[in-house]
């Protein structure tokens, strides 16, 4: 059972993003380790009272981020990675994007701020 609170009334952060961030937080904390099987899209959607498409979107984004691996009919699992530096950089980038989104800035502004920081 994957118990991740999702606030359906939080207009600032959509449910799929809350779910994505919740899974990411559990991976970072070590609560979800490499190889851990996570619930099916439909199972988690029913458990959390979400639409299956909402959970599917969170899973897709986590897969694109390298956090999840989907193994066909076997299901989805927390990905095993061998490069802790790359993992830390990915987490930092994900957190940066979340902050930029909360601030309401667009991608171009985010990249401009990143370039400024790299020059320092």
Automatic annotation (TrEMBL):
PROSITE patterns per UniProt: HTH_GNTR
The keyword Transcription regulation is annotated on this UniProt entry: yes
All copies of domain HTH gntR-type, residue ranges: 13-81
Molecular functions (GO terms): DNA binding; DNA-binding transcription factor activity
Superkingdom of the organism of origin: Bacteria
Alphabetic keyword roster: DNA-binding, Transcription, Transcription regulation
InterPro entries linked to this entry: Tscrpt_reg_HTH_GntR, WH-like_DNA-bd_sf, WH_DNA-bd_sf
Entries under PANTHER family matching the protein: HTH-TYPE TRANSCRIPTIONAL REPRESSOR YTRA
Protein name as catalogued: HTH gntR-type domain-containing protein
Lineage of origin: Bacteria, Bacillati, Actinomycetota, Actinomycetes, Mycobacteriales
């Amino acid at each position: 059972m994957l118990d991740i609170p999702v606030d359906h009334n939080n207009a600032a952060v959509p449910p799929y993003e809350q779910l994505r961030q919740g899974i990411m937080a559990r991976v970072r904390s070590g609560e979800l380790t490499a190889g851990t099987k996570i619930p099916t899209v439909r199972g988690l959607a029913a458990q959390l009272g979400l639409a299956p498409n909402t959970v599917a979107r969170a899973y897709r984004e986590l897969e694109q981020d390298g956090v999840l691996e989907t193994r066909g009919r076997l299901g989805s699992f927390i990905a095993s990675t061998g490069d802790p530096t790359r993992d830390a950089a990915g987490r930092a980038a994900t957190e940066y994007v979340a902050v930029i989104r909360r601030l309401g800035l667009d991608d171009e502004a985010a990249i401009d701020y990143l370039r400024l920081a790299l020059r320092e």
